[in-house]
Each structure stands twice: as C-alpha cells, then as structure tokens.
Amino acid sequence: xNVLKIRHGLVDVLVFGLAYEVLAxxxxxxxxxxxxxxxxxxxxxxxxxxxxxGWLLVFVGxxxxxxxxxxxxKWYLRLGARGIEADPTDAGCMTQGLxxxxxxxxxxxxxxxxxxxxxxxxIRVGAIxxxxxxxxxxxSEFAGLVYENLVATLLANARPDPEMDVxxxxxxxxxxxxxxxGMRIHVRPLPPTDVVTVLRVLARRxxxxxxxxxxxxxxxxxxxxGPPATGVHLAHIDLSQAWLANTNFQNATLTKVNLKExxxxxxxxxGANIHSCSLAMAKLDRASFWRASIAWCSFMFADLxxxxxYRAAIKGTNFYDAIVEGEAFENAYFxxxxxxxxxxVRGSRPDGDPTDSFTA
Length: 360
Fold this sequence. Notes:
This protein has ten helices and twelve strands. The protein folds into two domains: 1-85; 160-359, 3 Solenoid (Pectate Lyase C-like), CATH 2.160.20. Mean pLDDT is 75; it is low at 1-39, 81-100, 161-174 and 348-360. β1 (175-178) and β2 form a beta hairpin. α1 runs antiparallel to α2, α5 (121-137) packs antiparallel against α6 and α6 runs antiparallel to α8 (193-204). By secondary structure, it is an alpha/beta fold.
C-alpha cells in the first residue's frame, strides 16, 4: 500500500471540501439573482443571510480540516510503524515518492518530532521510523539532526524513576530463571518499546550516521580495520542508571559512555568496541562480551554473574571488587595492566553470608 498516495489523496479531498465551502455562498447568491419573482430588497436580505451562514460553514470546515489533519498524521504514523516494522530492511517503502523533495522531508521531520512526545507508544514508534526515513531521503540535511534526536529519545526514556521502582518493576512482572548451580534469578523485562526501536534504528543506519555526524566519524579513526557496517555508535553520553536489560548492542562502538549503575542484565555486546567507559556498579549478569574489544574501562563493583568474556580482548581495565561467577574469562586475552585478583566470587562476600538469589 502506498502510504503517501493515500495521504495526498485524503488531503486533496479535504482541500476540495474547503474550497467548496468558500465558493458556495457566491454560487448561491448568483442563483438568487435568477429568481425574477423576488424583489431586490428580498433578494438582498436572503443573500446576506445565506452569506453569513456560508461563512459559518467555512469556519466549521476549517476546524474540521485541522482535526482531520491531526487524525491523519496519527494514522500515518501508526501505519508507518506497522509497515516498516514488518519489513525493516525495505527502504523503498519509506522513500517512495519523496526522493528530492526537501519540503516534504521538512514537513515529515516536524510531524515526527512532535509525535515523539505522544503518550501513545505506537505513535512514538511510528515517529522513530519516520525520522529514520527522513534521514535516508534527505541525508545531507537531516541525518545529523535525526541522530541527535534519536539519542535524546534514548537518554530521556532509558532511565526509570527510582521512586517508581515498585510500579515499574512489580514482582509479578519479573521472569524467574535458574542458573546451572541452582541459583534463582529474577530478570527485568525489556526496556520500553521506543528505546528498543531507537537502538534498532541506530544500529542498522550506522553507516549513514557515521557519514553525517562529525564526532562519530572522528571516533571511527581509532578503530582498527575500520568501523562495522551496523551496530549502535554512541560517544560522550551519560547513561548512568539506564535500564537496558536484554538489549542488542552487537558490534556496537561505545566511547566514553557512562553506564555507571546501569541495569544491563542479559545485554548482548558481542563484537563490541568499548573504550574509556564506566560500567562501575552496573548489573551485567548473564551479559555477553564474545570477541569484544574492551580498553581503559571500569567494572568496579559490577555484577558479572554468569557474564561471558569469551575470546574478548581486554586492556587497561579495572575489575576491582567486581562479583564474578562461572567461567567468565574463558579464552580471553589480557593486557599486562589488567588485574583480576581483586574480584570476588559469588557466595563468599566479606560478611560471610552466602548469596543464593538476587534481583537483576
């Protein structure tokens, strides 16, 4: 279904209706002149009455047009969310009929930005996909702006309010898992849908954003072998206390990202390049760092229960007092500056009380 053709068709119908409302009084007055049996005074009185009623209809028509455009925008974003979600790799469905149209891209960008604050999550997801489309069809003008707004959306929605912890994470919403040694783990659900959607868009449009955001291009210069084609690229941002459990950061590039006290349970960081980041006191249980490159980071006091660093390259990183369980560092490669002797094995805390369960 061609969303844009439907949209333009509906707009044409609404504009035609408004034009009819405006022109109708003049048409009626013309017809009145044909009534030979009416006196001049009577015709003038009737015409004036119809003229007033006609402009009242015009006023109502304008209000109806505004309402229709609002509903049309929401319908369009909902349809865009469902259509692109069904086939996220099909850029053609987003750019059809828009290539080279700067005015339409500007209008679409403005609609999407306003929709990011909509209380309906479906509308917000549609707005995120629409921003992605704008970045594709008007790369030189909007790609940088789209990236900054997507990151701002991530920062605004990835942090749960600590005072609302009971309502955000009710006990009945937690999934229970058992580790191989019989330990019970309560797992938080996924972050909000718009956060997951932002991460998906940032990952699959990495090359586009890297070309148009200067500090991302500069950050890529330190990567040996060049940047990957996909994977979230974040630099110099504060995601402390963020809730990103079970999210996909495969092949991500994270530079000077503050993830202190973040909930990263089950996060997938396979193949990621993590440089100068703080993960101190973060919940990283069951996270995966397979073949990741980790340099000059801090995992102080982090929970690394059943976390896997299989074949990861680790350099100059601090694991002081981190909690570890399982074969976390199997076949990992270490630089001389890495000290693992200060880590704690779960079940032998300083107070002597064994830990047989915890909440992630």
